[in-house]
From TrEMBL:
Organism: Saccharothrix xinjiangensis
Alphabetical list of SMART domains matching this protein: HTH_ICLR
Lineage: Bacteria, Bacillati, Actinomycetota, Actinomycetes, Pseudonocardiales
The UniProt record lists the keyword NAD: no
InterPro entries for this protein: GAF-like_dom_sf, HTH_MetabolicPath_Reg, Tscrpt_reg_IclR_C, Tscrpt_reg_IclR_N, WH-like_DNA-bd_sf, WH_DNA-bd_sf
Record's protein name: IclR family transcriptional regulator
Length: 248
């Protein structure tokens, strides 16, 4: 892109946002957007102030929480959610548990669909809410589809903060857990993100075999009765959603 002076402020901001999806360093964002580094830096500072970007602690920038929130609110209205909703509904009816579908967004995932279970309670999760990857069944299912070095890099960027007394906060322990997830094909959350809640999750892939999110079934521990084939049901639902996204 050339002719910086001829671009409107909105065009410059959008160019930086688009570049931020693939790059974190100011120099790379400047190259991708075609804007001068001082302009990119100024726009990034505004995006940080508004929550659309955040510093990664290493001199770079990542997407901020407002992007996740807006993405979740928009995604729930897109065809992708409606396209996979029958699969999610089938999982909910077969298990009675609350079913979630979340998509990977930066170093977090964001809920784009939620179907309440049959029990007389509602989980605190909601569409548009972001979630950590290291302490949720959805997040661990996603991380298990990534190389260990990427998991370590993410842990360095975000830390592994304890959400409950059961949260895995050591990266080596997390990697050991992910090895088990890969072997069995699904992830478990035993009150690691929220006290009193357990969940089972399985990864979702797109047409390039890239992990893009995960499906989970969750329940309060006190009401956690489920079919003996619950993990298989969750994996089957995630596979069906993956196929809907073009996966082989």
């Amino acid at each position: 892109m050339s002719g910086d002076a001829s671009l409107s402020a909105a065009e410059k901001t959008l160019s930086v946002l688009e570049a931020l999806a693939d790059h974190s360093r100011i120099a790379d964002i400047a190259d991708a957007s075609g804007l001068p580094k001082p302009t990119v830096h100024r726009i990034l500072q505004t995006l940080v102030q508004r929550g659309f970007a955040r510093a990664d602690g290493q001199g770079g920038y990542l997407g901020g929480p407002r992007i996740l929130s807006l993405a979740g609110r928009f995604l729930q209205r897109l065809d992708i959610t409606e396209h996979v909703r029958p699969t999610l509904r089938d999982l909910q009816e077969r298990t009675g548990w609350t079913v979630h579908f979340a998509l990977l967004s930066g170093d977090e995932a964001v809920y784009v669909a939620k179907l309440e279970g049959v029990r007389p309670y509602h989980l605190a999760s909601r569409v548009g809410m972001s979630l950590r990857l290291h302490c949720t069944s959805i997040g661990k299912a996603i991380l298990a589809a990534l190389p260990d070095d990427e998991v370590r890099a993410l842990a360095r960027r975000t830390g592994l903060p304890a959400r409950t007394g059961r949260t895995i906060t050591d990266v080596d322990a997390l990697l050991a857990e992910l090895t088990e997830v890969r072997a069995r094909g699904y992830a478990e959350d035993h009150e690691e993100n929220e006290a009193g809640v357990r969940a089972i999750g399985a990864a979702v892939f797109n047409h390039t075999a890239e992990v893009v999110g995960a499906v989970s079934a969750a329940s309060l521990v006190d009401f956690a009765e489920a079919p003996g084939d619950l993990p298989a049901l969750v994996v089957r639902a995630a596979t069906t959603v993956s196929r809907a996204l073009g996966a082989d």
